[in-house]
Amino acid sequence: MNEILGILHEYGKAYLWSDGYRLTGLAMTLWLLLLSICIGFVLSVPLAVARVSRNRLIRTLVWLFTYVFRGTPLYIQLLIIYSGIYSLESVRAQPLLDAFFREGFNCTLLAFALNTCAYTTEVFAGMIRETPYGEIEAARAYGMSRFTLYRRIILPSALRRALPAYSNEVILMLHSTSIAFTATVPDILKVARDVNSATYASFEAFGIAALLYAVVVFALVWLFRRCERRWLAFL
Amino acid sequence: MFYGYGPLIASGTWMTLQLALLSLAAALLLGLAGASARLSQRRVLQWLASSYTTLIRSVPDLVTMLLLFYSLQIALNQFTDWAGAGQIDIDPFLTGVTTLGIIYGAYFTETFRGAFQAVPHGQMEAGIAYGMSSWQVFYRVLFPQMMRFALPGIANNWQVMIKATALVSIIGLSDVVKATQDAGKGSLQLFFFSLVAAGIYLVITTLSTLLLVWLERHYAVGVRKGEL
Q1: What is the complex's ipTM, to 2 decimals?
Q2: What is the value of pTM for the model shown?
Q3: Please, which residues 182-221 of chain B have a Cβ atom closer than 8 Å to chain A?
Q4: Which CATH number fits domain A27-187: 1.10.3720.10, 3.30.413.10, 2.120.10.80, 3.40.50.150?
Q5: How many CB atoms lie under 10 A from the CB of residue B55?
């Protein structure tokens, strides 16, 4: 018990928001989660529409993207983007690419955003496909254009119905952020590992990290339950 | 083609497959045990099983893995010191199997619980009425029907678990990730070899999808689907 108090006294701030120089710990994990979820969401909506497109080529291309990203571990995707791409001479020769890929944070964000985008695209595409036929027919009968049909009818309903599956994906993404430390991003697990190597109190160091993650998961579950109650009230 | 690293990568792939299959076996057994505990009449068992699944599922796999890997070693060191024996190093493979088994056991518990509850109660009563013992009711009546409902969940968990095996290289197992990274550093072709790792995982997940589709057809024998 004394050990935990000692660790909290010395490293509590690093676990929660800062080690004195930069964002670390919980704040870093949440920032990373928020950014990747937002980028993933913005990309996945048009991709989901393309995924159910009547054009075979577009459909297959999006399928290929989601298939590859869902069929390989995120850790390997991160390795490819972080150490793989940066090891290429042609990337380092370009000043812009060099500046981007040199930062562990950028690489992590890119890998996470693409990965969650692939899963979210499939979730949204599934829901778009399940839109009741009558609704689409009615919208057509009103003379809506394809764009208006998506904007007013299909997307609002599909995104709402996707909420339970989407909340699952967000929680899995939070779990996935724990590999960010392999690209030198100072998230919760990085702090825990530093504490572990400084104090040798492994159980306490990783236990605090586990507790922090669990608290965030419970908060997310609560938040999504409230959203569901509000936006899925019609079901 | 692999700059002479072919055998290393092949043995890494084999290691990953062994890890995945053994962890699957452990997780399935734990899942069945957990589901029976959650559905049992005893309050204590129900409570134990539900806190197990809630706790494990709210913490990232990697954190659980590191927690167990380091703490188990320290606990073992304290024990060997106390017993006066030499230090025993925990093998990353064993830790990998144990932790993946424990983690995915929690997910399988939930899958099996739902599937058992989906089997109509009358089936069990009919089995008892025929004079079967509770074990016979389980493996003759409940289990085969439960598998039908559990398979989609099992398939899902398996795909997630295969991908989670990549994390075990972080605690030092010489699996396919470690092998390809070593090959990449040795040959200065890190990009190429990382792609190879991704390709190997893609092949494994694709083959398992095919196998699972076949299994689902196998367990769906005699089920009439509603026609739309």
Answers
A1: 0.84
A2: 0.85
A3: 184, 188-191, 194-195, 197-198, 201-202, 205-206
A4: 1.10.3720.10
A5: 13
